[in-house]
Design brief:
241 residues; General transcription factor 2-related zinc finger protein; Znf_TTF; DUF4371; two-stranded antiparallel sheet; mainly alpha
Amino acid sequence: MKRSNTRDISSFFTKKSTTKNASQVQTSEENPIPEINITRAPQPSAQGSSPSVTIPPPVVDIVNLSHDPGKRKKLIDFHPNERDLVRRMYIQRGPCQPVDHVFPKTLFGTKERRFNVKWFDSSWRPWLEYSVFKDAAFCFICYLFKAENTAGGDAFVSEDFKAWNRIETIRDHVGKHTSSHNNAVIAMELFTKQKGSIVTALSKQTDEIMSAYRKRLEASITAIRWLLILQIDLLPLIKVN
């Protein structure tokens, strides 16, 4: 005879207790685990990087351009779009030639020498400059138009010439026809003529435009006058009809 002692299948599985220890619950409540918030860095747009912003070049301060060659900013240090404006301003001013200045003396060996104001009245007048600030001579034309990386004449451009006992150095600065100084002279003449030709062309064009405008205006006035006369002549006929 079979035994009736049958056990339910659920009795073979024991449930784990979910009841926490009181001390563990208390500790958890007193020292809760802090939440960690992870903030991601903003990612670049998938459409590409932001467009670059072009900063315009600074406007040259024309008023404060130093006339003293010893205080001038190098022309190459100006923005390329400003250099022609700087050249025009200095050409209008002309070379720095302080004729009333008391030139200091410098001892060379046993003799004292100084800059001679009469040099401004010589053939060097178009280009020779004197810096009161540095007590030195400079070349006005080479400063404005000497080609970059050209040898020769640096003593009168980037450096300062003050060897008053070596007047032949001033004389030799001009050099031959193909010297850097004479090339600068040619560049200055072309620059001045180009400016003059542009102004002349604009002035001529303006005159032509004004002349054509006057002709058209006169023709319009004449046409209006004839229309008025014609209308006056036809007025009696219009009334009769």
